[in-house]
Amino acid sequence: MKNRLVVVVFLSLFSAVSWASSDGVVLEHMEPNLADKASLQKGAKTYLNYCFGCHSTKYARYERIADDLQIPHELFMENLVFSDAKIGELMDIAMPAKSAKSWFGATPPDLTLVTRLRGVDWLYSYLKGFYQDESRPWGVNNKIFPDVGMPHVLHELQGIQVKDCGDAQSETDHDACTDLKLIEGSGTLSAEEYDQVAFDLVNFLHYMGDPSREYREALGVKVLIFIFIFFIFAWFLNREFWKDIH
Known about the structure:
Blueprint: H1 2-21, H2 37-51, E1 57-61, H3 62-68, H4 73-80, E2 90-91, H5 97-104, H6 114-118, H7 120-127, E3 130-132, E4 140-142, H8 155-158, E5 161-163, H9 171-176, E6 180-182, H10 191-209, H11 213-242
Antiparallel strand pairs: 1-2, 3-4, 5-6
Helix pairs in contact: 2-10, 7-10
């Protein structure tokens, strides 16, 4: 219990830091939907195809995800697992941490709890916030996470975004500008289709951060209904006990 309390406090503190780092940038809002299994399945597909090569989710198991997302084990392993991992294993990656640090400047973080740390709005805005910046090692920057050290792995889907600064005259004004414009036809998806991909991916990672949430909330409703019904019987019983006592 003590260790769990420490983890909760740790996440709360870092969550506050992440929100403070976004001051001045308006985050786009999204409302996760854990009941939308199709969205979670598509999010899992995007994650395992585009993100899992560098970012582990080592606090989750393939089997739990397949069961929760209602994907048959054989189908899940055949189409979403690209290694010799077993269905019951934790979702770790083969990339050595030291090599990753030398390639990217920092070891890519595990993403099991990323939405609990950053929030869904932050992550959704981050996925939509990449823009072309030739001064950066990977040729891209991010308006939510300035000087980001990772490439835009979904660029083939979204396409290329550039700063749309309008009448910004000075270099300072240009650097402070956060308005982005998508170059039409530079990606395989339309803006609306990419927004859906980003939503599905964040929705899946929101599930990963608390896989029991949907079950817990459904159970909570049942418990409240039981308490309400029990209260009615208790009230009548109490009245029966005390009706002759004045």
